[in-house]
Design brief:
By secondary structure, the protein is mostly helical. The protein contains four helices and no strands.
Length: 118
Amino acid sequence: MSATKLRNIGPKSAAWLRQVGLRSEQDLHAVGAVGAFMKVRRAGFKPSLNLLYSLEGALLGCHWQEVPEARRQQLVAEYEAAAGALPTTRAGQQAGPVHETHMPPETDDEETREIRFD
């Protein structure tokens, strides 16, 4: 996050947020607590739900433990819905089958050696 320290956001969480492009309080407000949490998860970090509650507390200006239980449950439901909408595997080209080629024993005559790619 930026030079102004947000409540509930420690050094590790701030580093995660910076690495996913959230560098200011305005950035956090723009994506919301769930959006920021999802960005951190998609980047490969393994945050606990406490980060989600901390982000919400930062947006509300309160300690993360003061986020009401009903709101916490709503945040978790929003996260689970967003996570369920993500593809389970990365899109892109899948690896094809592996073909094994057995080459004849090498000879000393370079002209008779053959290189094959299947």
